[in-house]
DNA sequence: CATTAAACTGACCAGCAGTCCAGTTGCTGC
DNA sequence: GCAGCAACTGGACTGCTGGTCAGTTTAATG
């Protein structure tokens, strides 16, 4: 898997063709029955090309997820409130969770693709969660920690994110019931971070 | 996969040998690298026997999970409070969540085994969640609904259960950090179901 | 247009879940 | 006790998968 320098014209074309192919296949088939051969054929390239570019099945899925998550990443870093900086943590958190639910809802297969990729390739030691998960997790934990530094916000963030990995919930999302999940997460967060929870308006978070 | 009538002596012996084998393999290896061939060899039987008894890889995993979950199932149906009937819903819910976290913690691979089995074998329509998940989900939703019938407790139960399916959380559990998860779930539930939440002591839940 | 490194390809490999059936074995009625 | 049979057993076999590689093509550069 070549480093991300400038891609040759044909390479770039094939790269996007492959991502588009996965995207489409994921919309109509369950991830488990999408073979790399099928992806390659759909994209109109040889199978070797897939592995030359993405290294592995997980690499391909990861690339797709990163592409889809890119906009949201920009929005929380630089965008306008309440998603971006400026709004109070609780509002930002609620906005972020809504955005994630929305993102996942609109892309049925997105997290189904992410799921396997977040798991172990083999049984090496500590395992690295992939960048998208890390970013989302850090964002949630950070915001929650500003309002409730007394909680284990690290674990809390994992719990909240877990909901978009669960099969039954992904099914519900596929059925268009994203609103229900959004509402439930909202209820949870508002119950946990009541309106004036922060001890200081200008939050001074403690980093343990 | 034969119906669950009385098993012949040798069949019963092989059945438990196979379950023990999976159990042990799951303790030392990642689920993805446990082949049915390996399971059969470890148990000292032929591969055909595995499929004759359990039908499929998922069937085998499911059987193991059911065995492990059996005691808990009995405890919530007939056992003493707070796990069993008799205690107020909130206390039962907290006790149940602790028990689940405990169960999963003590069996690293248990939910890792359950994970794939809960997913789609192919892309048939509605998909059946397996019995253990259904039971757990129904229990949580029922208890929560008694205290807060205004909430979408069905979705809430999915969200709470999702935490024991998440890879990062399973890792944490494997590292012995079950207490952290237990605490976090506790915080969530107590925030959501405050002490005297139920409008009626004898709850009358609404089934949508 | 010549050169070169990058990119492409599809035959190939090892390993997997699941099938199949010929041979074996525990059970049951007599 | 034993005969007969259904249930059980095992391991060779199949079809498919993710991943590899040596040989070929092609975009970029001066």
From TrEMBL, chains A, B:
The keyword Zinc does not apply. Residues 35-54 bind DNA. Residues 12-72 form the HTH tetR-type domain. The keyword Mitochondrion does not apply. Keywords: DNA-binding. It comes from the Bacteria. Gene3D superfamilies: Tetracycline Repressor, domain 2 (1.10.357.10). GO terms for molecular function: DNA-binding transcription factor activity; transcription cis-regulatory region binding. This is TetR family transcriptional regulator. It comes from Actinoplanes cyaneus.
């Amino acid at each position: 898997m070549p480093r991300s320098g400038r891609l040759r014209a044909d390479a770039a074309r094939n790269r996007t063709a492959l991502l588009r192919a996965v995207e489409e296949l994921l919309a109509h088939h369950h991830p488990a029955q999408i073979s790399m051969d099928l992806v390659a054929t759909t994209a109109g390239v040889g199978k070797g090309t897939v592995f030359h570019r993405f290294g592995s099945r997980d690499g391909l899925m990861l690339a797709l997820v990163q592409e889809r998550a890119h906009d949201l990443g920009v929005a929380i870093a630089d965008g306008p409130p309440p998603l971006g900086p400026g709004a109070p943590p609780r509002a930002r958190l609620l906005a972020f969770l809504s955005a994630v639910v929305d993102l996942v809802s609109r892309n049925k297969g997105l997290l189904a693709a992410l799921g396997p990729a977040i798991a172990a390739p083999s049984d090496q030691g500590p395992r690295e969660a992939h960048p998208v998960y890390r970013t989302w997790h850090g964002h949630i934990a950070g915001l929650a920690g500003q309002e409730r530094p007394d909680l284990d916000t690290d674990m809390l963030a994992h719990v909240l994110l877990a909901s978009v990995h669960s099969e039954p919930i992904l099914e519900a999302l596929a059925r268009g019931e994203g609103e229900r999940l959004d509402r439930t997460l909202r209820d949870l967060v508002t119950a946990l971070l009541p309106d004036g929870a922060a001890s200081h308006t200008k939050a001074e978070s403690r980093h343990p």
